[in-house]
Amino acid sequence: MLGHFKEPGDARHSEDVEIKWGVHPKGDERAQWVRGEERTALQVLISGRFRLEFPGRSVVLAEQGDYVVWGRGVDHSWYAEEDAVVLTVRWPSLPGYRADGPGRQADEPGYRTDEPGYRTDGPSAATPA
């Protein structure tokens, strides 16, 4: 919807932030882990069920509005456990994060957890510590 991937001069072109609407059929997954992440990301579940993988843990976004924020340096991957729609906001918007496959970009997802090492800010929010 908005980010570095839109043509310069387009009102949706931005190097500061990117916003993506991701529609993922059940079984859709990230081809490779995102390693050495240089952005901060916010992922919000609109519908479905979406799992985010981090080293040593797996977290699921299961209820509409569940979200997660993770920062720079957090390796991750994802898997759509059901047909899912997620809204992703990343900053800054950097080129070079395209995943294998047409029209795909690096990470996606969101999740919630009460696991140690996470700070929860509400009933369906989790932030990697």
Explain this structure:
This protein is mainly beta and 129 residues long. The chain is 0% helix and 36% strand. The chain contains no helices and nine strands. The protein has strands at residues 18-24, 40-47, 50-54, 57-61, 67-70, 77-80, 84-91, 118-119, 125-128. A six-stranded mixed β-sheet has the order 1-7-2-5-9-8, with no helix packed on it. It has a three-stranded antiparallel β-sheet with strand order 4-3-6, with no helix packed on it. The chain is globular, with a radius of gyration of 14 Å. The model is unreliable at 99-129 (pLDDT under 50).
Distance between the termini: 29 Å
Number of strands: 9
What is the spatial order of strands in the main beta sheet? Answer: 1-7-2-5-9-8
User: What sequence of helices (H) and strands (E) makes up the elements?
Assistant: EEEEEEEEE
Rg (CA only): 14 Å
| Secondary-structure content class | mainly beta
* SS strand fraction: 35-45%
Biggest sheet record: 6 strands, mixed
Low-confidence stretches: 99-129
Characterize the overall form. Answer: globular
Continuous helix count: 0
Average residue pLDDT: 78
Which percent range fits the helix content? under 10%
